[in-house]
Amino acid sequence: MSSGLFRPRPKRGDDGEHWLTVSDLMSGLMVIFLFVAVTYLQPLASQAEKLRDSNSDLSAARERIRDIVVAFSEDEEKIAQELERELAADLPRWGAELDRPTLTIRFRAPDLLFEQGEARLTAQFRRLLDEFLPRYLSILHSNAQSIEEVRIEGHTSSEWRGAAGAADAFFRNMDLSQQRTRAVLEVILTARGLEAFRGWAQRTVTANGMSSARPVMRAGMSWVEDPDRSRRVEFRVVTRARERIMRVLEEVKP
Fold first, then answer.
1. H/E run at residue 252
2. Residue 96 CA: distances (Å) to CA of 167, 203, 237
3. Which phi-psi region, left, alpha or beta, contains residue 6 (left: φ > 0; alpha: ψ -120 to 50)?
4. CB 119 within 8 A of CB 186
5. pLDDT given at position 81
6. Band of the pLDDT at 247, cuts 50, 70, 90?
7. C-alpha angle with apex 92: 117 to 123, nearest 5 degrees?
8. 234, 104 contact by CB (below 8 A)
């Protein structure tokens, strides 16, 4: 007997056409489903891969930022120690102080720094700068690779006799504080004995008139200004940590 005798015959419809078996229909549907699934899941897979890469980049960026912060914290501590070791004994005599966390030397004797209402340095302040600047700049110059900027900041009280109002007083003090810091910068760039630092100072040291934007308040009184302590000149070191962190963040920005 022929083996085809027992082979299942396809069913015929009323019109004589062959009907698909259930298994053939299911097979066809599975192929269609797989095609749709692949088409739909492919973008998701690509997004997942990009997300993994992005997470990996962010993790690497965090590690790099942590290393930068650690390195520059060590550099800032080194600069603070050198400033303290070199200058601490003379700061009280100069009417100055070192704020270690911000690497700021603050001169708080306004009557000894400038003529009242003038940008001209007093003779006493000029002698003080002649003593202070060579030692200060030498330390910073030796740590130049860690320093982005050295800011000379002039701060005033909010007072201005004869001003038409608060805004007028602010802008008059802004002009005065800018002239005063410019006078200090001029000493740095022209005084004898500072020639070795001149090129670096021209690129790094800036004069910033702050007016009364950052007044000093009386102890225990949040909104009462201490005008004498508000009048000051500050030398503040800004390290390169922030610049390098921003560069890392730019590299991983999607």
1. helix 241-252
2. 30, 26, 16
3. alpha
4. no
5. 96
6. low
7. 40
8. yes
